[in-house]
Specification:
4 domains, 5-stranded antiparallel β-sheet
């Protein structure tokens, strides 16, 4: 009787060992977690700053505010911090990520690719090697170091999602569809639409490849049947995440990813982001060699090492202070945290796979990889970029096209492992395999050898910004960058030779299968691990107490926090609109840091606010008295109408108090009707916002009179503030136009007078306004977006359907097993 149990345990042992291995790898790499430290990452810190008001409200009231005034004078909280209770798959995600970040996401990446390779019929030992190849690729560690956690999680769920779809086409379609529904739900839940979009591009290539092969094999009916079945998990996954998707889609129309109302459009404008903005970060065509040689273009934008030639000549010329301004990286991007290094061993195996792997899998993975490389070139290959930006729905919503290299990051190790599977299982002849080794060695090893012997082929070793530097400095920088290239070229060449030798040793029966696979795995891990440490090492972790110190208010913050009323703060000591300081943690900020601010607010920044900041900065440098600054602030219309009461010019001193800020609301006498957004934005620089209200002609029916006189005893004031509810009281002798220093957003904000809902409209390009009746009344604004509440109902219903489908499946399996017994 005990024998079957022992056999079962023996069969399951590789899978148990895989889980243990992935946990050990995750916590070994991120061992500071075991010491109680946490990673300090810029975007994670900014997310904590931006979500402070949201979290405080959630803790006090037990519900979501859905709006915050902490950044950019106010915006929806959907892309900052919002919980969607209808999505019950979230509980599975929480369980899967119960380990500490970032170990949890590394574990998920390893486990997800392991599952994918099992679906591709790899044995568990080969699947472990492939999982390590994917999970340890450098981009994971670069984005984790930057705090891009949602991006890393989306990449982790990408592999099982693709695996579910592949399983549906190759094996049991119903079981595959059920698994796909769960994996796709988790992928969307990760909350990084750009990664999910790129995964869909990869799957589109897979779909087209499958279609072509189905036509050739005359199995088109089976292809259509399986494709139709897959519609169900896609609908379910969209339904489960509907609340999140709907609110974000709705907000997208008003964010910088939406279409501008400005008519002065140029050729770089799209229905989403500007083309220049989309392609600002573009891989140089030659920079693609980074996938094989990590320091081909210098690696990251970090400064040179202290023992470098550059440092030496700077010290010799009494210019050591400039060392931090000279990056190792010299490619065409504005800067980078590191390259998309896939691994020399993996590139070798990928090329080997192109030669020896047969069937649709090879063409899918090869075409998807090439497509991702060419799209990553962005502005350096605009014919293809223009095609996708102009004609592929949604492509123009995303910036940093270099990110599409995640497709290559996924496809390259997968095809490499399929090649190893063919070789180790004896599914390819000795002749074909040796031919493949020679070609793969000739391309990957040949390139490495070429740049080792002739590093000058890589280019000038200077960026376009460095050609004007002194010759003594550029000579040193060129020498350092050449050494980096030669060192990594030799490194890649050696690893490729060892990998080729290992496979040859197996073919000639000098190595057993398990020994050859173990050696290849060791080479992969050594290759990637040592490069990853360049970009994310233990020195990036700190004690929670030291990170908490960054949230200690400065003297300027403490001064402002004494004011318990509602106002906004402008921090001039940082890059105001790329603010990664805790300004938004302590205050309601005019600026902030977020990739999806309101489009009209961005247009106001570009056209007016920036000029006002420059004017104030110039005046602050020349001012001899406090009065001089107030005279300048009188002319900052936009800052004043945004109720910017405090300006931080020195964190260690009291801020400038802007006596000209308009307050939370005021009455404007004259509605100035403008034809369109262009006219409104032009006039906002030259109007009197305390007396006039710029109103788009579409709202003109709401202000039928040419003037609404304001008497001395007409008053309006804010009584109560919550991020999603503002209550005002006012007294007016006649009808009045009230302008509120709050950002206009029509998709959810409702306005009431004495409890009765009434309309409000937009004024001064970004603010809210209302026509108020005479007398003493109460005005209330509440944020009640139907997209959120309706969306959660749909998410809950879809979640229940998925649970029932899984329950039905398991019941069926149990009944079948009982019947078989």
């Amino acid at each position: 009787m005990p024998m079957p149990s022992i056999n079962k345990l023996k069969n399951r042992m590789p899978y148990i060992l895989a889980i243990v291995l992935f946990l050990v790898v995750s916590y070994t790499y991120f061992y500071p977690l075991l010491e109680g430290k946490i990673i300090k990452a810029n975007d994670s810190s900014v997310a904590a700053y931006n979500s402070k008001e949201i979290n405080d409200y959630r803790e006090e009231f037990g519900k979501e505010p859905l709006w915050t005034n902490s950044i950019f004078s106010g915006m929806p909280a959907y892309l900052i911090s919002t919980r969607y209770p209808g999505n019950m798959v979230k509980h599975i995600d929480t369980m899967l990520r119960r380990y500490k970040m970032p170990a949890s996401v590394l574990f998920l990446s390893l486990a997800g690719f392991f599952i994918l390779l099992l679906i591709f019929k790899a044995d568990p030992w080969l699947a472990m090697a492939g999982a390590l190849a994917y999970g340890l690729s450098s981009y994971f560690f670069i984005i984790i170091g930057a705090g891009h956690n949602s991006k890393a999680v989306a990449l982790a769920y990408m592999a099982p999602m693709v695996g579910g779809i592949y399983y549906t086409y190759r094996f049991n379609p119903f079981r595959g569809a059920l698994f796909t529904a769960l994996a796709l739900s988790l992928e969307i839940l990760a909350g990084h639409p750009q990664i999910t979009y790129y995964a869909m591009i990869c799957l589109l290539v897979f779909f087209v490849t499958e279609l072509i092969y189905a036509i050739r094999r005359k199995t088109i009916f089976d292809f259509v049947r399986r494709s139709a079945i897959l519609v169900i998990p896609f609908i379910l996954a969209l339904g489960i995440n509907f609340a999140n998707l709907y609110t974000v889609y709705e907000y997208g129309k008003y964010s910088i990813r939406g279409k501008s109302e400005l008519t002065a459009q140029s050729s770089i404008k799209t229905s989403g982001l500007d083309k220049d903005y989309i392609t600002h970060w573009s891989y140089g065509v030659d920079e693609t060699i980074n996938l094989l040689i990590p320091d081909f273009k210098g690696g990251s934008s970090k400064p040179f090492d202290h023992n470098s030639e550059t440092h030496k000549v700077l010290r010799q010329n009494n210019a050591a202070a400039f060392a931090s301004q000279l990056p190792r990286y010299w490619g065409s991007q504005p800067g980078t945290d590191g390259p998309h290094y896939l691994g020399a061993v993996i590139i070798f195996l990928f090329i080997l796979g192109v030669v020896i792997v047969k069937g649709p899998e090879k063409w899918w993975l090869l075409i998807a990889t090439i497509l991702s490389l060419m799209l990553a070139w962005g502005k350096n290959f605009m014919p293809l970029s223009n095609l996708f930006i102009d004609y592929f729905p949604g492509y123009n919503k995303f910036r940093a096209v270099t990110m599409i290299l995640v497709i290559a990051q996924f496809c390259t190790p997968l095809l490499g492992m399929l090649a190893l599977k063919e070789i180790l299982n004896g599914s390819t002849t000795m002749k074909d395999t040796m031919k493949g080794i020679k070609i793969a060695l000739g391309i990957s090893g040949g390139l490495s050898l070429l740049f080792l012997l002739f590093p000058g082929l890589a280019g000038s070793f200077l960026s376009q910004y460095e050609t004007q530097l002194p010759e003594w400095l550029t000579d040193a920088m060129i020498a350092d960058r050449k050494n980096l290239l030669k060192s990594d070229s030799f490194r890649s060449l050696l690893l490729i030779l060892l990998a080729a030798g290992t496979i040859a040793g197996f073919l000639y029966k000098k190595l057993k299968r398990e020994h050859a696979l173990a050696l290849i795995t060791i080479l992969i891990v050594f290759d990637l691990w040592t490069v990853d440490k360049r970009y994310l090492d233990a020195d990036r972790f700190e004690r929670p107490a030291s990170i908490k110190k960054s949230l200690t208010p400065t003297p300027a913050d403490k001064f402002i926090l004494q004011d318990q009323s509602t106002y906004r703060v402008l921090n001039m000591t940082i890059s105001t609109f790329n603010d990664n300081s805790p300004t938004s943690y302590f205050h309601k900020s005019v600026g902030g840091y977020h990739g999806a601010k309101m489009k009209r607010y961005q247009e106001l920044i570009d056209s007016t606010i920036i000029n006002e900041l420059r004017m104030f900065q110039s005046a602050a440098e020349k001012a001899v008295s406090y009065t001089d600054l107030q005279d300048v602030l009188k002319r900052t219309n936009v800052l004043n109408m945004l109720n910017t009461r405090y300006v931080i010019v020195n964190p260690d001193a009291a801020p400038v108090i802007n006596a000209n800020a308009f307050g939370n609301a005021w009455f404007a006498e004259k509605p100035v009707i403008v034809e369109n957004a262009d006219q409104e934005l032009n006039q906002i620089r030259n109007f009197d916002p305390l007396k006039e209200a710029l109103i788009d002609k579409r709202f003109s029916v709401m202000v039928p009179e040419p003037v609404y006189p304001v008497e001395e005893n007409d008053t309006i004031m804010l009584l109560s503030y919550q991020p999603n509810e503002l209550i005002y009281s006012y007294s007016a002798t006649d009808q009045k136009i009230a302008v509120f220093s709050e950002i206009y957003y029509p998709a959810g904000w409702k306005s009431y007078i004495d409890g009765n809902e009434v309309p409000h409209f937009r004024a001064n390009y970004v603010l809210r306004a209302m026509l108020l009746p005479e007398g003493q009344h109460e005005v209330k604004f509440t944020f009640e977006p139907a997209s959120y509440f309706t969306g959660n109902k749909i998410s809950l219903a879809s979640s229940i359907i998925l649970i029932l489908l899984f329950a039905g499946y398991f019941v069926t399996v149990i009944l079948k097993k009982a019947k078989a017994d």
